[in-house]
Amino acid sequence: MVQDYQPGESYAYPLLIKQLLKTALVQAPDQEIVYRDKLRYTYRDLENRIKRLASTLTQAGMTHGDTVAVFDYDSNRFLECFFAIPMMGCVMQMVNWRLSTRQLVYTINHAEAKLVIINSDFLPLINEIREHLVDVEKIIVIAENPSYPESSLEIYGDYDELLSEASPEYNFPDFDENTKATTFYTTGTTGDPKGVHFTHRQLVLHTLSLTIGLSSYETIGRFRSNDVYMPLTPMFHVHAWGIPYVATLLGAKQVYPGKYEPEVLLKLLATEGVSASHCVPTVLQMIVTSPAAKTVDLSNWKVIIGGSKLSAGQAKAANELGITVYTGYGMSETCPVISLSTPKTMMLDQMDDDDMLDIVVKTGLPIPLVEFEVVDVEGTPQAHDGMSVGEVVFRAPWLTNDYFKAPEKSSELWVNGWMHSGDVGHIDKHGYLQVTDRIKDVIKTGGEWISSLDLENCISKHPAVLESAAIGIPDTKWGERPLLIVKLKPEMAGAADQESLKGFMKEAAAEGVIPKYAVPDTIHVVEELPKTSVGKLNKRMMRTEFGRNE
Predict the structure, then answer these.
(1) Domains of the chain
(2) Could you tell me which of 150, 252, 277, 486 has the fewest CB atoms within 10 Å of its CB?
(3) Is 444 known to be catalytic?
(4) Active-site residue, from 333, 373, 456, 480
(5) Best-predicted range by mean pLDDT among 144-148, 381-385, 512-516?
(6) For residues 316 and 222, what is the distance between their CA atoms, to the nearest angstrom?
(7) In 3D, which of 124, 123, 131, 78 has the Cα closest to residue 105?
(8) pLDDT tops 60 at residue 549
(9) Coil, strand or helix: which one is 399?
């Protein structure tokens, strides 16, 4: 688009998401983007559809600063939303459809979403919460199947039909690079989910840094333009770790699997030549243990593992199938990737298989432009000796500045110019970070966070319960699972047992009070809950006692 400039006036180049698309359109305009076995098109088509989506949203009344919520599986449509919505100056809200109904209502209302783009599989969910949505005016339905349920919301139209009718001419404007581009909600602490948001500048800088970290160093697992990328982390999880932006910048072939089904994933891995992915350990385990895995050549597959700890056993099992795995680390507030556990170039020739396993399960080295330290309670950095522990703190030019409309929570996030993670760890002499624990009592299962306080609050509503404590215990499949320890009221002794208490929690999940995945597998009824000398619940003792017994 031609603009008028005064003689000698330079172009103030804003770091906007639209710039990430331009290189691919020059380098690889005919490269493929694939959705399951249903759709295949080129980067030229991607640009065309991005423009048509922006035209559609404009016609629907969306203007600069409005929020558009997106419910979908990992798909080409979500990729189109990754670009079109922020490129027109709107805000894309990535909705975690796994949240409880109460949390969904809160997050959509808190984000002030005016329009929802939703996969037809999730229409029953949106219908259930419709009467509680304050700002949503209409929805656009992605027809996953030819027929789908009706909606109590005004259906503006079918996604693909609207795009086919929309104008392919759309001039994405320049605007302030500090404009908010995306938002989503993290349930990593007690209370209501917190709104995390990123600007165009932050997302572009993260993309550039992550691209360098993934592709420039001579090490294992490099992600280059000739790789075939398939995300196995939901795209609502922090922009699928930001890697769709990296893949697009590089002009790599992209494959989107939709709903995660082992047979479909393995088929796509084989037929599309997928060579680069990322996922939580649970998904890796689901694929590795699938009988079909033995019939597929996985020797060209490189996988970044995050969300919960990659164990040496899981890494070894993957390696035995020829898969290259290593850890990526970050948190919602860091966009998320800030470290990768790849060996340094100078280490490669000196490492045997055991040495490699030790490295890939570490939290990792900082990617370019990231600083991290572990600090004591006074904020003093600890020695990089692999033993001195402290809270992990970060600096980078893309970390979220604050939580949306939550100044009191934001004040806990940033202290003395460092973002505080709530994780505890140490740094060794080579600069590798190893996270060892978490400060707060949050339970992480299969990449999803569960608030211990929410579980305790929920079970406390049972008429027989006097006291309770929720802890996370190790689980080979999910990383962690919640466990509840309950003391009954004296007059109600014998009135409740594990099964009746679990039934109570299941009913709460069915009512949307807690997510279904938060229902504990085990509930112990005890005479007394372990406490500290000052009367606080001693969860460290509980983890030692009950984690060992499980």
Answers:
(1) 18-340 (3.40.50.12780), 370-438 (2.30.38.10), 442-549 (3.30.300.30)
(2) 150
(3) yes
(4) 333
(5) 381-385
(6) 19
(7) 131
(8) no
(9) coil
The residue with tokens 């938060």 is: 518
Which DSSP string corresponds to 334-374? G-SEEEE-PPPGGGGGG--HHHHHHHHTS-BEEPTT-EEEE
pLDDT tens profile 88-103: 999 999 999 989 899 9
For 129-140, give one letter per residue: b (16+ CB within 10 A) or e: beeebeebeebb
Of 444, 445, 448, 539, which is the active-site residue? 444
Chain center to CA of 78: 14
Catalytic residue among 97, 137, 449, 502: 449
What is the distance between the alpha carbons of residues 219 and 201, in angstroms, rounded to a whole number?
A: 29
d(Cα 284, Cα 479) in Å, to the nearest integer?
12
Tell me how far the alpha carbon of residue 100 is from its chain's centroid: 17
**pLDDT tops 90 at residue 443:** no
* Tokens, residue 514: 């807690």
Output phi, psi for 423, to 5 deg.
-95, 150
Distance from chain centroid for Cα 370: 19
Give, to the nearest 10 degrees, the angle between helix 243-250 and helix 76-87: 90
Q: What is the mean pLDDT of residues 334-351?
A: 95
- Give the tens place of pLDDT for each residue, 492-548: 888 899 999 999 999 999 999 899 999 999 999 999 988 764 456 788 789 888 876
Contacts of 544 (CB under 8 A, 6+ apart): none
Look at residue 190 and tell me whether its pLDDT is greater than 60.
Answer: no
43 contacts 24 by C-beta, under 8 angstroms:
yes
Residue 186 catalytic? yes
Task: Give CA–CA dist 221/214, Å, rounded.
Answer: 8
Please say if 344 is a catalytic residue. Answer: no
Catalytic residue, chosen from 186, 187, 211, 342, is 186
Give me the phi and psi of 117, to 5 degrees please.
-100, 120
pLDDT bin (cut points 50, 70, 90) of residue 550 is very low
